[in-house]
Amino acid sequence: MKILNMLVPMTIEGLKVTLGVFLVTLVFAIPLAVVVALLRRSNNRAISGVTATYIYIMRGTPLLLQLMFIFFGFHFVPVIGYAFSRFQAIYIAFILNYTAYFAEIFRGGINSIDLGQYEAAKVLGMSKPFTFIKVILPQVIKNVLPAIGNEVITLVKDTSLVYILGASDILKAAKSVSNVYSAFSPYVMIALVYLAIVAVLTKLLSNIERRYNYYR
Amino acid sequence: MSLIVDKISKAFGDVKVFEQISFTVEPSEIVCIKGKSGEGKTTLLRCMNNLETVDSGSILINGLDISKEKDNSRVGQEIGLVFQGYNLFPHLSVMENLRIAPVFLKKMTNEEIDERARELIDTLEINGKEDMYPYQLSGGQKQRVAIARACMLDPSVLCFDEPTSALDYETTKQISIIIRRLAATGMSIVIVTHDEQFVKEIAERVIVLKDQGIIEIDRVEL
Hints:
heterodimer; A: mainly alpha; MetI-like fold; B: alpha/beta; Rossmann fold; six-stranded mixed beta sheet; 7 helices; 10 strands
C-alpha cells in the first residue's frame, strides 16, 4: 500500500512526460516525414543527398546518443553555441529521429503507388500538388498504416530514454519508488501501465486501418 | 479540323519510334490506329496526351499546340485518354472519380459538375453505381467510368488505348455503341487497337503504323 501511495502520484506526473513526448513527437514528425520523403525523392541531387545523409545519421546512431548530443553537445558547436533546455532537447531529438524513420516509411508508400495514377491525374489536367494531396497521399496512408503503427508503438517505449536527460517519466517513477522500498513491484506495475497504453493504441490503430478498408 | 498531327518524330535514345508522321482527325470522326506490337501506337497516344514529349513536329487541337503546352489543365480540356488499365482512383467512389478533375479546374460550379456527371452516367448507362468504388465494378463498368471521367471536361478529342483488350464480345459491342454516341456529339475519337473485329465494327478511318511511319490511311466503307 505504501508503495502504491508513493507510486500513483509519481506515475501520474510521469505520464505527463511520457505522453507529452509521445504526442509532440507524433504531431510534428508525421507531417515533417511526408515533406522529408518528398525531398528524398527529389530529382535535385543536392536536395536528395542532404536528405539521405540526414536519414542515415538519424537511423545510424542511437536515439540515446542523439538526446545527449543535442542537450550536452550542442553549445560546443561553433557558431551555433546554443544550449537547449532539457525538454527542448528531448522534443528536438525525438522529432528528428522519428521523422527520419517515418520518412522512409512514407517514401516506400509513395514508391508503391502505380505510375498510372499520376498519369491519369495529369491527363485530367490536375496539378502536381493537387494530385499528391487528393490522389496519391490518401492511398499512401492506407499502405503505410501498419508500418507507421509499429513505429508508434516503439515510440511509446522509446520515451523511457528521456531519463538520460533527467526528465521524470513513468519508468523513472518506478525506479525511484523501487529504490526507496527496495522492491521490484513498482517495475511490474509500470510494465502494466506501458501495456495499457499500447493496448489503447493498438485498438486505435486497428480502428484507423478498418476505416481505410472501404476500398481495395 | 479537330486534331492536326504534323510531322512528329519520337525516339527513345537511339531507338526511333516514329518519324515525321502526320494525320488529321475531323470532329465526330472515329479513327483507329493499328500496328504490330512495338510499332509505337501507345507512344503516339501518349505523345498526343502530353505524357511523352515529341522530338519535333506539332500536335494541334483547336489551335493549341499540345506538344509545346506546359499547362496540363489546358491540355486536359482539349484531349482526354481512356487508359488500357483504366487507372481509376481506387479510393474515390464513381461519382468522386468523375468530380475530381472539374473540381480542381474550377471551370464549372458544383451544380454544373453534378449535372454533367449525371448526364454522362445516363449516357454510359452506369446508373446506380455512383457510390460504388472501382474494386466493386466489373471490367466493362470500370471502362465506362473511365470514359465518363475523361468526358467530364468535355474534350474535343478522346483517345482510347486498347479499349477491348479485357472485354468480352457483348461488352465490346456495348462500348462500340457508346463510342459512336460520343462521336455523334462532335467529339473526335482516336482508338489504338489490334482487335481487327473491333476495327471493322467501329472505324471510319484506319491508320497503320509500320517501320516508323504511317503506311496506310484507309477510309473504311460503311
